[in-house]
């Protein structure tokens, strides 16, 4: 894939509220690194350019239902400016998603959820080819520690491969009782220390 330099978390072009400005800050950071497209008059949803940056395909077993190419096609039909497939500790859907996006001339963004055993869940988006390689190495390490179909990552692993990655930490209800909760202390401490200005709090609109 010629452009694995594509990444992010939820973003729009024009906002007003504080929560929305946080999403816009992520888009600004990614646009400066040639990750997101420059604003244009098209690709609007209810008057706003929208890029979905946290979406699971059927490669996230028991979590996602649609094939990556189906998600890309639907996002294009809805007028999205781009789509990130961020399956759980996997990049298995990248090829199918990228192929569909290439055929449609649609912005495709690579990413993955990770669930360290000693840290809160987060989504990681590589900003260039080297960072994509580090994300692959990170996921491979976690997979090699377990039986097929499982992945075991630690915060120290994320730290080691963090260069060039943008991270969005989020509260995952399904993980309660299994790994540490997302806390202010984590965001202000270990998370900021590792990702500095490339670390964000990921939220979702439903």
Counted beta strands: 9
Helical amount: 25-40%
Largest sheet: 5 strands, mixed
Shape: globular
The helix count comes to: 6
Structural class designation: alpha/beta
- What ranges have pLDDT less than 50 throughout 5 or more consecutive residues? 1-27, 41-45
Distance between the termini: 32 Å
Please state roughly what percent of the residues sit in beta strands, choosing from under 5%, 5-15%, 15-25%, 25-35%, 35-45% or over 45%: 15-25%
pLDDT averaged over residues:
80
Computed CA radius of gyration, to the nearest angstrom:
16 Å
Order of helices and strands: EHEEHEHEEEHHEHE
Q: Explain this structure to me?
A:
With 206 residues, the chain is α/β, with parallel strands linked by helices. Helices cover 34% and strands 17% of the residues. The chain contains 6 helices and 9 strands. It has helices at residues 18-32, 68-77, 94-104, 129-144, 155-160, 184-195, and strands at residues 11-12, 44-45, 48-55, 82-85, 108-110, 112-114, 122-126, 165-169, 199-201. Strands 1, 2, 3, 4 and 5 form a 5-stranded mixed β-sheet that branches. Strands 6-7-8-9 form a 4-stranded mixed β-sheet. It is globular.
């Amino acid at each position: 894939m010629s452009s694995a330099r594509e990444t992010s978390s939820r973003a729009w072009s024009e906002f007003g509220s504080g929560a929305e400005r946080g999403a816009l800050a992520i888009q600004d950071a990614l646009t400066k690194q040639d990750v997101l497209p420059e604003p244009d008059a098209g690709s609007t949803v209810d008057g706003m350019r929208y890029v979905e940056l946290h979406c699971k395909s059927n490669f996230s077993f028991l979590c996602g239902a649609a094939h990556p190419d189906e998600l890309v096609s639907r996002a294009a039909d809805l007028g999205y400016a781009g789509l990130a497939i961020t399956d759980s500790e996997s990049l298995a859907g990248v090829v199918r998603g990228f192929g569909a996006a290439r055929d449609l001339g649609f912005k495709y963004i690579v990413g993955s959820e990770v669930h360290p055993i000693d840290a809160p869940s987060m989504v990681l988006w590589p900003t260039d080819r080297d960072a994509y390689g580090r994300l692959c190495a990170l996921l491979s390490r976690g997979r090699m520690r377990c039986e097929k179909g499982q992945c075991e990552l630690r915060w120290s692993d994320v730290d080691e491969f963090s260069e060039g990655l943008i991270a969005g930490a989020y509260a995952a209800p399904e993980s309660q009782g299994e790994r540490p909760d997302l806390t202010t202390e984590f965001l202000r401490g270990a998370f900021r220390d590792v990702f500095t200005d490339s670390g964000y709090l990921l939220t979702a609109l439903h």
